[in-house]
Design goal:
Length: 357
């Protein structure tokens, strides 16, 4: 009984164990960078990976939450540190200055993104199965990764800035581009939208731009609330679109579990209850129609009775890498065996009385 309880506890502990987000130090020359990485909850052969580019304040709770969710969907994830140690903004003004620097010096931005990609690959993601996503300032970075043709299957920009210096040419763009945009975002002008769309067309990019009605800036952040008048509100539909892109362009990634993993806890629990009652009532003579008896080779050896049911009253087949064979016996068959044994006892007593007479 103790061993069974230990098995149950161990199984449920493993089922509820999640990969943990861990700090990952790396560098750009003499500049120390502090990213975060998390392994896929289940390792897949294709080793899909997602690089997260955080918003203008740098790595925050939102980017960490997203990393955890993606890990549970079986992606290896890395959060890039764009600013570097000693340069993290303490307020919106500093965040504006820091992010503005990298928007202007886009080559440095692309370089920091590439360094983070390298760390993602080191942590286990396959170089050919990576998607880059970014939020706000990070969404601008995702577009810069596409403009720089960094090696990635695609980029996703959540309410990111779209514009670039007009002096920069519209070059060919290889990665697929998905723009998730709040239709009422006050920080993105119609002019920048038009310029961006022309850039995508001239670059012959494979791109999509989805507008969300009544959505404004930072609409993916729950903490932003739902007050559109503030210019930042939450809209969960964009997450679903990102999942569709990831499922399509990162092969073999799937979060479905085998049926055995859903059924196994119930089977173990049922066996635990069965063994408990058998321990409490070892001499219980009768078996009702609602009870289930599991007959093992050991039981057959001790009793000398080989119980067979034709056809079985109930039979469940479970397919897994380690098949579990449950031989379920119906109460009607057991009643027949019990009746047969009783008849043998009566016949034996009758023969004894005849001999004594």
């Amino acid at each position: 009984m103790k061993n069974l309880i230990l098995i149950l506890v161990t199984f449920f502990t493993l089922q509820n164990t999640h990969a943990q987000l861990k700090p990952v130090p790396y560098s750009d020359g003499n500049q120390k960078l502090n990213g975060f990485g998390i392994a896929a909850q289940k390792s897949l052969k294709s080793k899909p990976g997602v690089l997260i580019l955080p918003a203008w304040k740098g790595i925050d709770s939102h980017s960490k939450d997203v990393a955890q969710q993606l890990s549970e969907l079986n992606y290896t994830v890395f959060i890039a540190d764009i600013y570097g140690e000693g340069n993290y903004p303490k307020n919106p003004q500093e965040a504006s200055e820091q992010s503005g620097y990298y928007k202007t010096n886009f080559n440095e931005y692309q370089n920091r993104i590439q360094l983070a990609l390298n760390e993602l690959i080191k942590s286990g993601a396959h170089a050919d199965n990576i998607v880059i996503i970014g939020y706000c300032f990070g969404g601008t970075g995702a577009l810069e990764a596409a403009r720089g043709n960094l090696k990635t299957q695609g980029v996703v920009s959540f309410h990111g800035g779209l514009g670039k210096d007009a002096k920069r040419p519209n070059n060919a763009i290889s990665p697929k581009v998905l723009i998730l945009h709040g239709a009422d975002d006050p920080y993105v002008s119609q002019e920048s939208i038009t310029q961006f769309q022309n850039e995508m067309r001239e670059g012959k990019a494979d791109w999509q731009m989805i507008y969300y009605a009544n959505a404004v800036h930072a609409f993916t952040e729950i903490s932003a609330g739902n007050d559109n008048s503030k210019g930042a509100a939450y809209n969960e539909k964009a997450w679903e679109k990102m999942e569709l892109l990831l499922d399509k362009h990162l092969p073999e990634k799937k979060k479905k579990r085998r049926f055995i993993f859903l059924l196994f806890p119930l089977v173990l629990t049922g066996l635990g209850i069965l063994f408990f009652f058998r321990q409490q009532n070892p001499e219980q003579p009768a078996i009702s129609d609602k009870q289930i008896t599991v007959t093992t080779d050991k039981t057959k050896k001790e009793t000398g009775v080989n119980v067979k049911t034709e056809p079985p009253a109930r039979q469940t087949q479970i397919e897994s890498e380690s098949p579990v064979d449950f031989n379920l016996k119906s109460s009607s068959t057991l009643d027949k065996v019990s009746s047969h044994n009783d008849n043998q006892d009566v016949l034996k007593k009758s023969n004894q009385r005849t001999a004594e007479g």
